[in-house]
Amino acid sequence: MKNTDIKEILxxxxxxxxxxxxxxRKEYLEWICGYANAQGGNLYIGIxxxxxxxxxxxxxxxxxxxxxxxxxxxxxxxxxxxxxxxxKPYIEIFTRKSSHLINYHGHYFYRTGSVKKELTGxxxxxxxxxxxxxxxxxxxxxxDPKKVTFKALKQRYLQKTDKKFDNKTDFESFGLKTPDGQLxxxxxxxxxGGKVYxxxxxxxxxxxxxxxxxxxxxxxxxxxxxxxxxxxxxxxxFIKKNSRVGWRKAVGxxxxxxxxxxxxxxxxxxxxxxxxxxxxxxxxxxxxxxDDRVEITNPGGMIEGKPIQxxxxxxxxxxxxxxxxxxxFGRMNYMERRGxxxxxxxxxxxxxxxxxxxxxxxxxxDTGDFRLTLWNLNYSEQVSSQAKEQVSEHVTTxxxxxxxVDFCREAKSNAEIxxxxxxxxxxxxxxxxxxxxxxxxxxxxxxPDKPNSQDQKYYSLSE
Length: 463
What we know:
The protein contains 15 helices and 16 strands. By secondary structure, the chain is an alpha+beta fold. About 3% of the residues have low confidence.
């Protein structure tokens, strides 16, 4: 975490663990609080917004005032050191990840990406719950255990294990009820009838390859609320009925060519139901199907905070936000007790007859959501004249990095940018051109904590 090579740091933009300021202000205790609650990090004083080390004054006084302010305001200690770059002084403040949640004057801050945000609502509740060592699914539910049934769970358990569900012991053993018979949140989630109101799936089959084109209507749309077993079945059925299965002749028979691998779909849906943040009361799992892909989005980013797109999905350890729910699915042989489901999704795709690198599943997360994109393996042979038109000769302005960055000197929406460059499909344009520039820190989002916000715009920094 600690990186004292200022030359290397200044080559990069401000990020998850590095931030610089031209002078010290007491409000920067909020930044330090955010580092302590996240992964730790470095705050540099005496470096301007362009990454230039300035001639910092009063360094002796600052070396006394800053540690005292940190101790008095946050009750933690940080390494505060005087450094030099080309004979110019600057101060490095290194904050370690705290073992407990830190607040500044009763407010909780968290560092995510290159921004500092105050935690409120479900985000604060999640962090406090995590610090307590408890999980949402293990807490006692307010649902009356006398008014629930578990018909679907018991039938599926028998089907998957060849064992009958023991009413006397299994509810408690599996964490669905407490020793005194109260229902846990996990139990409420598996109960028939959707006893947890926000445990829902909203599923839509869009006409085309982008929901943002207002001329396109949904071909199919359903909302469903029930127990987790029923939600899993609903998600699989919705995707199946809106997909096609082709085939080709082979020696001794034929080979089926599905739009989407069945195991990958099942694993993706289970992942969404297990790892979603149920503290987000107004949110639900979304299935958005397009001609070329299906996107499965669930509330709640990666549990340890680091975005999945910054990691190798094959090497991400299995950490369940809802371990009781995960264990129940594991007992029914839906998933392995150890290891990440991401690897299984990638492996299932690579095992398909028509797999190419362009069909590799994509994983994305931020602090609020996790999104998995599964590409239609048969789409290359289904490309419509509309899609061809959107990405070929009808482009009126050549898309170059220089042109795009220059156009975004003032913040523009994705639709505005795509229209300017002659693209009808703003979703394709965003994935093809905008996202790579965001990852390269050439473009920035006006709403960085909500990448999919309808108010999202993109801008570049003036030279």
